[in-house]
Specification:
143 residues; alpha/beta; Rossmann fold; six-stranded parallel beta sheet; 6 strands; globular
Length: 143
């Protein structure tokens, strides 16, 4: 099941801290729902947030093992969110996505690691690239 802002308390209670839960924070509606469907089909519990404010609230509520966040969003951006997530839960894995922040010819792995980001995906990326990134940061196999 994909959990959104319209999920009920009954729906929410079925997500436990031990389940493999991914929080997706993405302001593009189509991409957010596509990623949610893809990851749900791969066996994850998926929580969706459309902006940084909602993402922070859902992070505190669901305590996901992985956050997949856009970097450039209106309001609270993915960088400030990552810093906050790592303060709240140092073990949470974070994959950041951006189409405007990074270019393929710039190696900024040291910078993003310093900020707490485990992996950066440049948009557009394939389902295979996303699954590989998730397997690497969560040290798990995917369907």
């Amino acid at each position: 099941m994909i959990y959104t802002e319209h999920s009920t308390d009954k729906d929410v209670s079925s997500v436990t801290e031990t389940s493999k839960t991914i929080l997706i924070i993405e302001d593009d509606n189509h991409l957010r729902y596509y990623l949610g469907e893809l990851l749900e089909l791969s066996g994850f519990k998926v929580i969706l947030a459309e902006d940084g404010h909602q993402g922070l609230l859902k992070f505190q509520q669901f305590k996901p093992q992985l956050v997949l966040t856009d970097i450039v969003m209106p309001g609270r951006d993915g960088i400030s969110l990552t810093v906050r997530f790592k303060r709240l839960c140092p073990d949470v894995a974070v994959i950041a996505m951006s189409g405007r922040w990074l270019s393929d010819d710039v190696d900024c792995s040291d910078s993003v690691s310093f900020l707490g980001i485990d992996k950066v995906l440049s948009k557009p990326f394939s389902a295979a690239q996303l699954k590989e990134a998730i397997m690497n940061v969560m040290h798990t196999d995917m369907v």
